[in-house]
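Please check this today:
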Amino acid sequence: MLETQLETIGLVHRLRRVAWRSVWIFLYRPTPIGFHAWRRMLLRLFGATIDSNTYPYPSVQIWAPWNLKMREGSCIGPYVKCYNVAPVSLGERALVSQYSHICTASHDYNSASFPLTGAPIQLQDDSWVAADVFVGPGVTIEAGAVALGRAVVTRNVAAWTVVAGNPAKKIRMRRRDSQSTIPEK
């Protein structure tokens, strides 16, 4: 997906961000790991679309909850940075592991005004972003795909593909064994 120029961030948006950051500091971040329901409630208050059985960890930094969608069984792990200027959606059982960076925006470095650009990120059902992975604007990680640790993902990842490296490249296909809890679709 091509990045598009985003609207200028206005006063109302900045005030929403200040309110969210204050709630994050005082009510979200200090909670014990198991208080997922409390954190889901806070995210919903700020416009997130979150199913009931999801796992947002206390140390995850979510830039704009109103641009976040989490489906059943999805998880955003410890110390993840979710810079969701544009929408981020996690499908059922999609996982984002610790220290990963989900980044929906950048700047047009070819323009003298350096405008903010961005595009949505989608992590489809049963996908996994392993530890310390960077996922760039406009990327879709399709169903069952895996980005291994420290990968830099700047292009879409096909279903059931395993990628690694900088830039991320296909290294194998992910196996679906008969003992798996991952449903066939």
